[in-house]
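Friendly challenge for the regulars: who can give me the structure tokens for this chain first? No prize, just bragging rights.
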Amino acid sequence: DLLDSLLQETYPQSILMSVSSAQTDKAVLERYLSLPQGDRVCATYVWIDGSGEGLRSKVKCLDSKPGKVEDLPNWNYDGSSCYQADGSNSDVYLKPVKMYPCPFTRGDNLLVLCETYNHNDEPMATNNRKKCVEIMKQAESQHPWFGIEQEYTLFDHDKHPFGWPKNGFPGPQGPYYCGVGANKVYGRDIETAHVRCCLYAGIKVSGTNAEVMPAQWEFQVGPCEGISMGDDLWMARYILERVAEDFGVVVTFDPKPIEGDWNGAGAHCNYSTAVMREKGGMEHIEAAIEKLRKRHDRHIVDYDPHHGNDNKRRLTGLHETSSMDSFSAGVANRGSSIRIPREVAAQGYGYLEDRRPSSNCDPYVVTGLIVKTTCLDESSWTPEKKTK
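First reply, four minutes later:
Bragging rights claimed.
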């Protein structure tokens, strides 16, 4: 064919083979997904690997649908292949903590979020959920609510931003944020499919939009109380990567995926307690901000998985960020560490927005640290740490 000959002239055979072998026809898959499976159920166990950023999963077939998460069996996996163990003692154990309807295989099939433990039944280093649960229990009576704005960027397999010219750059930032049109928005199908999947799974997704840099998107999850914030955001990330996989597109949560005059990516955390949400709550919001000011260095270290080194590339004071070297707060100021929305300042109660967490942060660490700093006694605070 003419198309085949043109492709052969344009691309080496090795590239064509790698591209074609990585793609499958999803319409063919539907033929098999429609097959009855009797009373048996497929449960996809999902966990955080040793990088603290990557997600892994594998499927367990059960004889019947579990009525609650406690009915799901523990399982294990090869930790030596997930940056978590040596080959001589490689078993890492999975303990289910929350289950969701599976939007990919539907029916009674499930996605199962798991914590990870070693052979001594000790939490793995990247199992920050266990510590977060303990913190949330201590602050349970204060009813901490969170909403996280998760930004991400889409890439082609060649590590080039999705939709960008292959031999150059798109026009400067300006028309892309919440944009409309094929020359302004790249990857809307992925964003739309992701939101529908989250709704199906029962994740409390609350919105989505195209971001300032082309091929960059944001979705919001919340308000969620306590540990459910971290649970739902990690599962929403997993679902996003699965959706993008179907489209043959790569997702990155890197906080500064493109150097230069382009916006980075964050995971802004909106936060309140019961007293902040009541009339006169501004007094409590301001008190929380002062506590956050006192522990700025500690938060910067823990707001990305590389001890602040990722945020060094993002929190420069440019591109709608504050400088990581200083703490600031302001009304409607997107260049501050903590933003108080204008309507909150006007009505005198509501919530604050912590704009420092990076897009690849661990939401268990972020929400746990915010609660520890603002709700618990200072005697429970861990020592300050400085960025490297």
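The longest strand covers residues 91-101. The longest helix spans residues 228-246. Your move, everyone else.
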